[in-house]
Amino acid sequence: MSKNSSRPVGRHFLNIPGPTPLPDRVLRAMDTPIIDHRGPEFSKLAKRCLEGIKTIFKTTKPVILYTATGTGAWEAALVNTLSPGDRVLMVETGQFATLWKNMAEKLGLSPEFIKTDWRIGAEPAAIEEHLRKDKNRDIKAICVLHNETSTGCLSPVAEVRKAIDAAGHPALFFVDTISSLASADYRHDEWGVDVTIGGAQKGLMLPPGMSFNAISDKALAAAKSSKLTKSFWAWDDMLNLNKIGFFPYTPATQMLHGLAASIDMLHEEGLENVFARHDRLAEATRTAVRAWGLEIMCRDPKFYSPTVTAVMLPAGHDADAFRNLALETFNISYGSSFGPYAGKYFRIGHLGDVNDGMLMGTLAITEMALAVAGIPHRKGGVQAAVDYLISAHASPARAAAE
Ligand SMILES: *Cc1c(COP(=O)(O)O)cnc(C)c1O
Questions:
Q1: For a pocket test of ligand 1, which of 96, 103, 155 has the largest count of ligand atoms closer than 8 A to its C-beta?
Q2: Potential cystine with 109: which of 104, 201, 292, 353 (Cβ 3.0-4.6 Å)?
């Protein structure tokens, strides 16, 4: 938005790490008359979604759909399986991990936090060490974020599973995939996760307002003896009615129309291609950041996130002022910073229905905004990202031609 104009021109650059830009196809799929949520047409739509979403979580077990944001699905995972006072192991990877831990406390659980400096993901070895010390096997659940959206660090879920097994610990394993599902490889069954929490408005390219619990047999068994209070979130009524394509209450019908379209789109592109695209866009972003001479918040490349990159500004420069300037001048939204790092970084979301050209628009805007804001940096980040993307596209094509 130019400073003297009241009308933003063109499309807004929505580069927050969720909600992500809505594909027109999803928007059109949702633009339909409301149908009877107890009628046959609805049941067909719901069954299609309930089956389809399993292919995204890579599970053959039930996935529950809630009319709620991701925070609701966090609560659902905890209250369906645990009892007051239960010890829960969590890893302080950043703001979202902290919010989930605060929720566990409010629900009457006893969370314990493995600390990090917010610049890495969850380390399997630290989890294993903590679990080995729990000789009485009192810890009832281990909660990890696959992707810590507040810092741009991805945790190795399969390796955390191995660490739990290596410690011989029987605790349930819960994973938040809200900002990685349908953007980074994820396998609920193969990785032995008991409850996977997902959300609609990030990799699934839907509006906010729907979230998920993918549930293992072990989690279903734990639900039978769980004593935390639950009503809206209770799995049992949902599972019974879902079998015939219905819900205990009125679900968000339009969201289901959108979800059916989004699942189709993901399979048409191919999940492997979706993941490769996110990896490519993330590496292009990091290439630009390095060329600018700025620091990436995630300090160990093995934890780099494919969906969001947090960029630290040089000391003395306020990242919130930078975001405001970029919004006013170039009509772009970035993610903000949190906790001990408030005002120190901004986040570039590159997930959902984003292609190379859209990302290059974002990176060009960012380089312009850095210059306009007077933030010390080197020029050439955009060119470096262009060169990276050319090489990323040229090599497979060349290989195929040879
Ligand atoms: C966005 C997000 C949440 C919160 O989801 P809401 O839909 O805002 O309730 C939780 N965890 C992660 C990792 C997220 O990215």
A1: 96
A2: 104
* DSSP codes of every residue in 123-174: -HHHHHHHHHH-TT--EEEEEEESEETTTTEE--HHHHHHHHHHTT---EEE
Choice from 148, 150, 178, 307 to test ligand 1 binding pocket (greatest atom count within 8 A of CB): 178
Centre of ligand 1 to C-alpha 178, Å, is: 6
Predicted local confidence at residue 1, as pLDDT = 47
Q: What are phi and psi of 13, to 5 degrees?
A: -85, 100
DSSP sequence for 14-40: EESSSSPPPPHHHHHHH-S----TTSH
Q: What's the CATH fold of domain 24-267?
A: Aspartate Aminotransferase; domain 2 (3.40.640)
pTM to 2 decimal places: 0.97
* Averaged pLDDT of the chain: 96
Task: Give the residue whose CA is nearest to atom 12 of ligand 1.
Answer: 178
Pocket test for ligand 1, best of 71, 143, 150, 186 (most atoms within 8 A of CB): 71
Token readout for 6 is: 């009241």
Q: Report cis status (omega within 30 of 0) of the bond before 19.
A: yes
CATH number attached to the domain at 13-17+270-401: 3.90.1150.10
Domain with CATH 3.90.1150.10 in the chain: 13-17+270-401
Q: What is the pLDDT of residues 292-348, one digit of tens each?
A: 999 999 999 999 999 999 999 999 999 999 999 999 999 999 999 999 999 999 999
pLDDT of residue 396: 64
Cβ-count burial of 201 within 10 angstroms (0-12 exposed, 13-18 middle, 19+ buried)? buried
> How far, in Å, CA of 22 to CA of 255, rounded?
12
Quick one: average pLDDT of 379-390?
98
CA of 70 to the centre of ligand 1 (A): 5
Distance between CA 58 and CA 24 in Å, rounded? Answer: 26
- Closest ligand 1 atom, CA of 179? 15
Q: Which atom of ligand 1 is nearest to the CA of 211?
A: 7
For residue 72, the CA-to-ligand 1 centroid distance in Å is 9
Put residue 207 in one of left, alpha, beta given phi > 0 → left and psi -120 to 50 → alpha: beta
Helix, strand or coil for residue 304? strand
Question: Which residues of the chain does CATH 3.40.640.10 include?
Answer: 24-267
7: pLDDT confidence band, cut at 50, 70 and 90?
confident
